[in-house]
From TrEMBL:
Keywords: CBS domain. PROSITE patterns: CBS (PS51371). This is CBS domain-containing protein. Residues 11-67, 86-139 form the CBS domain. It holds the Pfam family CBS. The keyword Glycoprotein does not apply.
Amino acid sequence: MEATDKISKIMTDNLIKLNVNDSLSKAESLFKKNKIRHIPVVKNDKIIGMLSYTDLMRISFADATDDDGQEIETTVYEMFTLEQVMTKNVEVVTEHTTIKEAAEIFAKKEFHALPVIKYDKIVGIVTTTDIIKYLLEQY
């Protein structure tokens, strides 16, 4: 393990993003289809927020099913915009941030994903799971 290993070594760069004007139904679909827990919200490729699956769960019963096991369509998503539900003022890191520095941010904060930016444009995302996998590979 190198103390100088950069976040670009472990970040996900094949990004799934939401545009600020996308619907919460689209967000839920992306979460489930891709089995992910965090999606950056962008406006012209500039990060303006982060939506977590937990954010959606706070406002809905998205996983609710009826007696036949069919998903119940939620109408609560029509009551809110993505911008109202997402986390704003997101902390970001650059591709040159070290893995150790990112781990320190996660240890101090109460979130589990950091957008990675280059020249104000999002180029990746790193999660606590990425850090744990990296640490496990070292042993």
